[in-house]
Amino acid sequence: MAALTRMRKTWRPVVVGALVLAGLTTAATPAAAATNRTGLCNKGTGFSSTLEFPWRGGFTSHVVGPGKCWSITLAAGSTEPVNVFVHGNGAKVFLGSKTIKTGEHNVFRTKGTSVWSAQYWFSHS
After folding, report:
1. pTM value?
2. So what's the pLDDT on residue 68?
3. Which end of the chain is more exposed for a tag (fewer CB within 10 A), N or C?
4. Distance between CA atoms of 124 and 117, rounded to whole angstroms?
5. CA distance 72 to 60
6. CB 50 within 8 A of CB 87
């Protein structure tokens, strides 16, 4: 009986660890597969970028530094404008606006070497 108890105790951490790993994998898969996010990636240098959602009371994204990205899940069912800004050297420069469909995959990317040369492009899927 003592050998059986030792065996159970030996296997318990392995089984619990496997179950935890399986749970993490299952929980992470839907989030990773989600395609209904709106995001901003700053591919530029020398400035930061933000998105502004004017129909949401002027809600803005986090300030996204060079080489960084930010995203948010927006409830599906509407279209709304999103404004793109870059920030640097004390300036805030409006790059443009795009109307998006919420609940779908929308990505804004900024590029350039300064706030004065910055551009953005948009992709949707």
Report:
1. 0.71
2. 98
3. N
4. 24
5. 11
6. yes
Helix (H), strand (E) at residue 93:
strand 91-101
Q: Along the chain (125 residues), what's the average pLDDT of each consecutive run of 10 residues?
A: 52 42 35 69 97 96 97 93 96 97 95 96 92
What is the rounded CA–CA span in Å between residue 22 and residue 14? 12
Report helix, strand or coil for 90. Answer: coil
Name residues whose C-beta falls within 8 Å of residue 25's C-beta, 6 or more positions apart in sequence. Answer: none
- At 72, which helix (H) or strand (E)? strand 69-73
Can you tell me the distance from the alpha carbon of 48 to that of 115, in angstroms, rounded to the nearest whole number?
8
User: DSSP secondary structure string, 12-43?
Assistant: HHHHHHHHHHHHHHHHHHHHHH---EEEEEE-
Quickly tell me which residue has 């599906």 as its tokens.
Answer: 76
CA distances from 106 to 51, 56, 78 (A): 12, 17, 13
Q: In this structure, how many other beta carbons lie within 10 angstroms of the beta carbon of residue 87?
A: 17
